[in-house]
């Protein structure tokens, strides 16, 4: 990366850091406690054009590259993971940008890019999430359009989003991707889930009960959806890894601040050797994860042969770091870390799901091993 590029990215990161501290952090505790979308931060994000970051200018976006999307996700998650997840969820529409018709792009992308509408995607189903190609949701041609039947589970922004990207079976060995609007006949939503963490991000079932959509809502070839979704998951794993990294960095920030200010036996506890060792280990986990994530992003942006392996490496390292670092941050706070008055309690709860979604870390390890053997 050239020095001019590094400087530009650093300026972008600095502006996001200020935004996160001024407009996101003050509402993080309330968003979690009240289990509501971060409306204050979303309104403020419109002024910066953050909803349009992943999209091309021709569709109302700002042509942000993958690294700028990763930085945005990381810096927002550093103070509020639910807000980061909600504001940066536009990447779920990457397939529409690359494979959708011009008419579909105008109908879906432009209003999402300008912040007028919101998007979600439906992959996971009740019988499993890791076996994506075993999806039982079906899409069949009907009356010049499509009829969708099935249930999608644990859908982020369900009931709150306007557009839903649905992955469905279109034949014995084929899948397609379809755009469903919340006002289409036959779509309904389950109850909002009462979650351990990410409580400011609504999650519910999306139920397609003979949901009828018009022709043109299919994304590209309705028999090549599996091919499209694999590519989309590649980028989304990097974004989710950045999300986990932001949580880890935020917990480290809080731990440093607390241990400097908390005194025991006449001195700041930051002076105690055992605590300094814990902090050092936390820094090692965060920086190692960051290095692999940024390498993975660079590989993806430049079409490197190891890009897919590094995406899995980054997802595992960043999410494992998030869980470990938040746990240690709570420990360093002592009894105070167990109270909701301190952000590390929320961060620890938010961190857990990063090891589960977007391909569990067990599945990612299988993919990493597969790539390792293939390289021999």
TrEMBL record:
Its cofactor is FAD. Residues 121-211 form the Acyl-CoA oxidase/dehydrogenase middle domain. Keywords: FAD, Flavoprotein. It comes from the Bacteria. Pfam families: Acyl-CoA_dh_1, Acyl-CoA_dh_M, Acyl-CoA_dh_N. Residues 9-115 form the Acyl-CoA dehydrogenase/oxidase N-terminal domain. Residues 224-371 form the Acyl-CoA dehydrogenase/oxidase C-terminal domain. Belongs to the acyl-CoA dehydrogenase family. This is Acyl-CoA dehydrogenase family protein. It comes from Variovorax defluvii.
């Amino acid at each position: 990366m050239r020095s001019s590029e590094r400087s530009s990215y650093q300026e972008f990161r600095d502006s996001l850091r200020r935004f996160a501290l001024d407009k996101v952090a003050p509402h993080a505790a309330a968003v979690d406690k009240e289990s509501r979308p971060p409306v204050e931060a979303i309104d403020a994000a419109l002024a910066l054009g953050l909803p349009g970051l992943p999209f091309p200018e021709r569709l109302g976006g700002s042509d942000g590259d993958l690294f700028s999307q990763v930085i945005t996700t990381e810096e927002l998650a550093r103070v509020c993971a639910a807000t980061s997840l909600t504001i940066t969820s536009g990447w779920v529409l990457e397939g529409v940008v690359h494979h959708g018709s011009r008419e579909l792009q105008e109908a879906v992308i432009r209003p999402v890019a300008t912040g007028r509408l919101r998007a979600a995607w439906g992959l996971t189903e009740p019988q499993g999430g890791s076996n994506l190609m075993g999806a039982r949701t079906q899409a069949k041609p009907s009356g010049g359009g499509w009829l969708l039947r099935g249930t999608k589970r644990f859908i982020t922004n369900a009931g709150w989003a306007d557009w839903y990207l649905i992955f469905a079976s279109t034949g014995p060995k084929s899948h397609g991707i379809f755009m469903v609007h919340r006002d289409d006949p036959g779509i309904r939503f389950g109850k909002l889930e009462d979650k351990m963490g990410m409580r400011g991000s609504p999650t519910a079932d999306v139920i397609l009960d003979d949901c009828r959509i018009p022709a043109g809502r299919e994304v590209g070839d309705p028999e090549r959806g599996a091919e499209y979704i694999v590519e989309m998951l590649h980028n989304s794993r990097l974004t989710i890894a950045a999300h986990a990294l932001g949580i880890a960095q935020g917990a480290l920030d809080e731990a440093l601040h607390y241990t400097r200010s908390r005194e025991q036996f006449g001195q700041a506890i930051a002076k105690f050797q055992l605590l300094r060792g814990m902090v050092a280990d936390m820094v090692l986990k965060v920086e190692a994860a960051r290095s692999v994530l940024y390498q993975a992003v660079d590989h993806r942006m430049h079409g490197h042969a190891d890009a897919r392996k590094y995406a899995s490496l980054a997802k595992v390292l960043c999410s494992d770091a998030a869980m470990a670092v938040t746990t240690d941050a709570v420990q360093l706070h002592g009894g105070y870390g167990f109270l909701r008055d301190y952000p590390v309690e929320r961060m620890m709860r938010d961190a857990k799901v990063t090891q589960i979604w977007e391909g569990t870390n067990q599945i990612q390890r299988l993919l990493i091993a597969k790539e390792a053997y293939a390289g021999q």
